[in-house]
Amino acid sequence: MFKKLIEESTAKSPWLFHINAGSCNGCDIELVSVLTPRYDAERLGFKLTGTPRHADIVVVTGPVTKQSLPRVLRAISQVPEPRCIVTMGSCPQSGNVFRGSYSVAGPLSKYVPVDVDVAGCAPKPEAVIDGLVLATQILKEKRAKK
Amino acid sequence: MMTIVLTALQYLGYILIFPGFLFCFVIGMLLCGIDRKIVARMQKRVGPPVLQPFYDFFKLCGKETIIPAAASKTTFLAAPLVGLAALVVLQLFIPIHGFSAFSGMADIIVILYLLLIPAMAAMLGGAASGSPYAGIGLSREMVTIIACELPLVMVLLAVGKVVGGDAVTFSFSKIANYQLANGSLITHASLIPAAIAMLLIIPGETGNHPFDTAEAETEICEGLLAEYSGAPLAVYKLTHCVKVLTLTSFFAALFLGGIGTGIVVVDALILVAICIVLTIVSISFVHAITARLKIEQVFKFYWTTVTGLALISLVLAWYGL
Lengths: 146, 321
Prior knowledge:
With about 150 residues, chain A is of the alpha/beta class. Chain A has one domain: Rossmann fold. Helices cover about 35% and strands about 15% of the residues of chain A. In chain A, helix 1 (about 1-10) packs antiparallel against helix 5. Chain B is mainly α and about 325 residues long. Chain B has one domain (about 1-320). Chain B is built from twelve helices and no strands.
């Protein structure tokens, strides 16, 4: 019964940690807008945390520049299991307009397993919420497997 | 022999169920959930469900606990438990309309010390984690405690003077009995500034907005809690919730005593209702309408405005007004 309670709670209380991996700031603003009164992701339990140790879901924005890559990997490795990695915007998936640049090390999926991709430049808040809710389901499955 | 066993069982019941751990757990979490809901409603949001703190707690219980390589393991893991235990013990001292699990000659002084232990434990745990962010959080937490402590002591002195008459009393049962006989102390004109000061102390002591400089998530990565994850973090979150209950019921016992029927269950429900109102007034409203203060502003606010209010009460009480 206790196990079931923890599983249910895992899906209902996902805390986000946001990493900017060389983003143009467009996606960062869209992510914050998800928490504003209009979209209010807190009604689903989402909360932005300040440290990776408290996080369940890591949201990565930006094309993952060579400078930011080691920091991104280090921050992700600090997140306790079960964790979920969500890329936001087209940049971490394909490089977007920065593709082929000498300073871009992405896509992120070359280095860590990515659970959810939210495409768009920048994605709509509705799409972001949809992706995050999908991530909570994956979190719950990961917890159940443990 | 039988009576000893029965007494031991009775105290075990006090500590574990009511008004100890289980009561603190459920009602404290409920207060925090209501707080988050009210803040959201004031910001025109739907807000998380009232049970959200429970979900957060159980989720954190199921997460991996990472102990940093630089941390001192025993202190790191023991600190949250010590803080929680101190608060649960504190709750046993607070009278509920005449009923109190523990009582003594100078329990208010015991309460003052017990109130410090969770903050001290959080500081020890933060220091043991070896994180530089926790170091900054530690110094800020210390300043916040010092800022809150002075007006709190003055409020207690004023209350003690009004109740004790010639000799200042530090006995909570005396304060409760005085209020049973003479009505709530908040109706006492000289104690109204002290009550307002106490309302302002509550968010400072619990580390709620706008006095949450020690755990500022956006600037110093949650400060003292920066390295905590999993079950110890869950205990910290629980400690925060219990602290809200403890301080609001402390206020209720100091200023709103004498409201009740004498039946413990009914009185406990009345206390919960009072605590909900106090949480909304002193924590939620303040949270929704203010931005986070800087640490020196917190200190200045407590040592001028709040201490001033408490001082007015103390002087008025001293001259018997």
